[in-house]
Design brief:
The structure holds 2 protein chains of 2 kinds.
Chain A: H1 2-8, H2 19-33, E1 50-51, E2 55-56, E3 63-69, E4 82-85, E5 88-90, H3 95-103, E6 115-120, H4 126-138, E7 143-147, E8 149-150
Parallel strand pairs in A: 1-8, 3-6, 6-7
Antiparallel strand pairs in A: 3-4, 4-5
Chain B: H1 14-28, E1 35-40, E2 59-64, E3 70-72, E4 75-77, H2 82-90, E5 99-100, E6 103-104, E7 127-132, H3 138-164, H4 168-177, H5 182-194, E8 199-201
Parallel strand pairs in B: 2-7, 7-8
Antiparallel strand pairs in B: 2-3, 3-4, 5-6
Helix pairs in contact in B: 2-3, 3-5, 4-5
Classes of the chains: A alpha/beta, B alpha/beta.
């Protein structure tokens, strides 16, 4: 009996010396994986449609994103068809310049692999998308991806 | 004389600071993997381009009006039935395949459809034409595209299971990892040419 009693005496403090190490490790992980949004959205965050046949976009540096949705600034009206290129509201006519500008930033060999990701709101109209598509075809930017969230089948 | 000891730095609050930073990055991190329905646009046709004449029965017409309603081959349809209708159309195999570089592909041997005279001849001749209104909602448009792609996926998957005993996505994945593998490449190409995705976007109505 006395042996057991001895053990109960003096609870050893949990050694927390390694705690900062663990926390730092997590910290570095999140620091590295964090990507701050490069462009701030001038339109309301588009509510993406959902689809089941989605593919992941690879090579982030070769992806140009076009946002379509409702402008935050009320002076652009409340339709869901405003187009944002880089960080300003534009029209479909400016899409070719946007693509050409993006092309100048990558090497020539990579140009055919460039993808245009269209992030449009569910309620945008197809007309807007088609206008953009025609402009993209004009400059031979043929790979596009309609951004969508994945649903189960 | 009092002995001077080097004072130890109190590291007790280090964990607190680290936690603070950690929580900041936890909150700001967005691990968004960008995903979407990928599509390849057709090249701009030359000015004097004359579109080839295609038999009516080889075209599967999908119309979406501005109220987001579907008209498929002249009949109203719910979006959930579209996949099945598409499969029936593509997989019909009612006639001869197209002639590619002088080589006739002949009748479809792997099709399981009704082989009706009134529907498509061969999967490589079957064209799906999507026409939408300019005011159609993008969500509906994409849902339609998704259903069509799903139909193709199902057919490809079925053929892949039959021929190579592996699901098609797995086959593709394996090929992506091992690009040099000729036999894998042949398999993937074979399935893809057996059921080529021919989805065209017709000029929208106003």
């Amino acid at each position: 009996m006395s042996k057991f009693r001895k053990k109960k005496k003096g609870m050893p403090a949990v050694n927390t010396a390694a705690l900062p190490d663990i926390v730092f490790m997590l910290l570095f992980f999140f620091m590295v994986t964090t990507t701050m949004r490069e462009t701030d959205l001038k339109i309301d965050n588009p509510r993406l449609p959902s689809a089941s046949e989605v593919k992941k976009l690879e090579h982030k540096s070769l992806v140009n994103t076009i946002y379509i949705g409702k402008a935050k600034d009320l002076k652009y009206g409340s339709s869901f068809n405003r187009i944002q290129l880089n960080d300003k509201i534009s029209t479909a006519d400016e899409v070719p310049a946007f693509i050409i500008n993006a092309r100048s930033k990558v090497s020539e060999a990579e140009v055919p692999f460039m993808t245009t990701s269209i992030k449009a709101d569910k309620e945008s109209s197809v007309g807007t998308i088609i206008d953009i598509r025609l402009k993209l075809r004009d400059v031979n930017a043929l790979k596009i991806s309609y951004s969508a969230s994945k649903t189960a089948d | 004389m009092a002995r001077r000891e080097t004072p130890e730095i109190n590291a007790g609050s280090m964990a607190d600071i680290a936690f603070l930073l950690l929580i900041f990055f936890l909150v700001t991190t967005t691990m968004n993997v960008d995903s979407g329905v990928s599509k390849k646009l057709s090249e701009k046709p030359p000015a004097d381009y004359v579109p080839p004449i295609i038999k009516e029965k080889n075209i599967f017409e999908v119309n979406i009006n501005r109220n987001n309603e579907l008209l498929v081959e002249g009949e109203r349809m719910d979006i959930k039935d579209l996949q099945e209708a598409t499969i029936t159309f593509i997989d019909n195999g009612g006639g001869e395949g197209k002639v590619e570089e002088g080589v006739a592909t002949g009748p479809c041997t792997y099709c399981k459809g009704e082989r009706s005279e009134k529907s498509s001849d061969h999967p490589n001749k079957a064209i799906i034409s999507v026409q939408s209104d300019r005011l159609t909602e993008y969500g509906t448009y994409l849902a339609v595209q998704d259903q069509l792609l799903k139909a193709y996926r199902e057919l490809r998957n079925r053929l892949s299971m039959e021929k190579y005993k592996t699901p098609f996505p797995e086959l593709e994945e394996a090929y992506k990892k091992d690009k040099q593998n000729e036999s894998l490449k042949k398999k993937v190409e074979d399935i893809k040419t057996s059921y080529p995705q021919i989805i065209s976007d017709a000029e929208p109505t106003n």
